[in-house]
Design goal:
Ubiquitin-like (UB roll); binds FE2/S2 (inorganic) cluster; alpha+beta; DNA polymerase, domain 1; 5-stranded mixed beta sheet; about 220 residues; 7 helices
Length: about 220
C-alpha cells in the first residue's frame, strides 16, 4: 500500500478522502461526461472534413474540372488550385480590387465570389489577356505610361480597365455620367470613377488614367 493511502478515513477527520477515493470519483465523473457526449446526435462530418463539390468552368479559354470545398472563393481556386497567381489577394474583403477578374464579360472581385457560383462560367484573368511577348493593348499601354510602381495592383487594374471600356461601349452609365441615356463620355472623371474600386497604394493613378485613355481612344 502506498504510504499516503490509508485503509479508512481517520476518525478525527470524517471528511478526509484517500487518493484512491479521489481517483474513483474523477473516473466516475469522466464516465458520466462521456455518456452525455455519446447520446445520439445528427450525423456530422468527421472533424476537418469538408464537403467537396465538382465544378466545371473555363479559365482563359481552357476548360477545368475541379473538386473543391464549397467555401472556396474564386480567387483561392485560381491561385491555389489552378496556380494562376496573377490575380492578387490584397484585402480579401472586396475593398482593394487587386483580385479583379472578368467573369462572363463582367469584372468582379474574385475574393468575394464563391467558386461554386461559376459553374460553366468563362473566366479571364490577367494571364488570359496577354503574355509578355504578346501583350494585350491595355498591358502595353500600362508599360508605356508607367501605370504602376510595385505592380501588385496592376493585374486587377488592367482587368478592370479592359472591362470598363466594354461597359462604356455598351453605354452603361456611371455615378458621374451627367446624362444616363447618352453614350458615356471617355473623360478622365468617368475613367477615375469607373476605376475607383481599384486601389493603388503606390499612387500611380494619373499614369493609369493616361494608359486607359490611350486604349480608349483606339478602341472606344
Ligand atoms: S483582394 Fe479582393 S478586393 Fe481586395
Ligand atoms: S503599383 Fe503598387 S499598389 Fe499599385
Amino acid at each position: 500500500m502506498h504510504p499516503q493511502e490509508s485503509a479508512a478515513p481517520s476518525a478525527a477527520c470524517p471528511l478526509s478522502l484517500t487518493r484512491r477515493d479521489l481517483l474513483v470519483a474523477s473516473a466516475a465523473t469522466a464516465a458520466a461526461g462521456s455518456t452525455v457526449a455519446a447520446e445520439p446526435t445528427a450525423p456530422r462530418p468527421a472533424a476537418g472534413a469538408a464537403p467537396l463539390h465538382k465544378l466545371t468552368l473555363t479559365v482563359n479559354r481552357q476548360p477545368y474540372t475541379v473538386e473543391l470545398d464549397t467555401r472556396t472563393t474564386l480567387l483561392d481556386l485560381l491561385r491555389e488550385q489552378l496556380h494562376l497567381t496573377g490575380s492578387k489577394k490584397g484585402c480579401d474583403h472586396g475593398q482593394c480590387g487587386a483580385c479583379t477578374v472578368i467573369a462572363d464579360g463582367r469584372r468582379i472581385n474574385a475574393c468575394l465570389s464563391l467558386a461554386v457560383l461559376h459553374e460553366g462560367s468563362q473566366i479571364t484573368t490577367i494571364e488570359g489577356l496577354g503574355t509578355p511577348r504578346q501583350m494585350h493593348p491595355m498591358q502595353a499601354a500600362f508599360v508605356k505610361h508607367d501605370g504602376y510602381q510595385c505592380g501588385y495592383c496592376t493585374p486587377g487594374q488592367i482587368c478592370s480597365a479592359v472591362a470598363v471600356l466594354d461597359e462604356v461601349k455598351a453605354g452603361i452609365p456611371s455615378h458621374v455620367s451627367a446624362d444616363l441615356t447618352a453614350k458615356p463620355l471617355l473623360s478622365a472623371d468617368e475613367l477615375r470613377e469607373r476605376m475607383s474600386g481599384n486601389i493603388c497604394r503606390c499612387g500611380a493613378y494619373s499614369n493609369i488614367v493616361d494608359a486607359v485613355t490611350e486604349v480608349a481612344g483606339r478602341t472606344a
